[in-house]
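Running this now, will post back.
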Amino acid sequence: MLKLKITVTALALVSLDLIIIGDTYLTASAAIACTAMALPLAGYLAWRWQVPDDNSRIPFILWVPVAELPVIRAFKELGVMSTPLGATIEPEKMTTLGGFVALTSTIAILLAVIVPSSPTRDDSDDED
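Update: finished.
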């Protein structure tokens, strides 16, 4: 669970870094892709925290389409498919996209930080 928390946090931070540093369609689409990967994983972390005995992957499978709908909309509004990836983004688009990436990355980071880690094993010999 700790590795998943670190992965979610790293993906969310990479998306924030890409949106701050980059100014091309390539960096913007990479930021959206990192956000798209971090959000379902954060949802899975929250599900495992709320229902620790449930080992099914069904909630994760159901969470992926719900988390990806805003990402598909962001790709559509950005117009990545019809624009060269090396082109510079207009500031108005970058402001809107930056708000989306910041909000979703913050949600993923907060979920990853709030979910407690798995308890560690106690190897002490207290049975004597």
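The mean pLDDT is 84. More later if anyone needs it.
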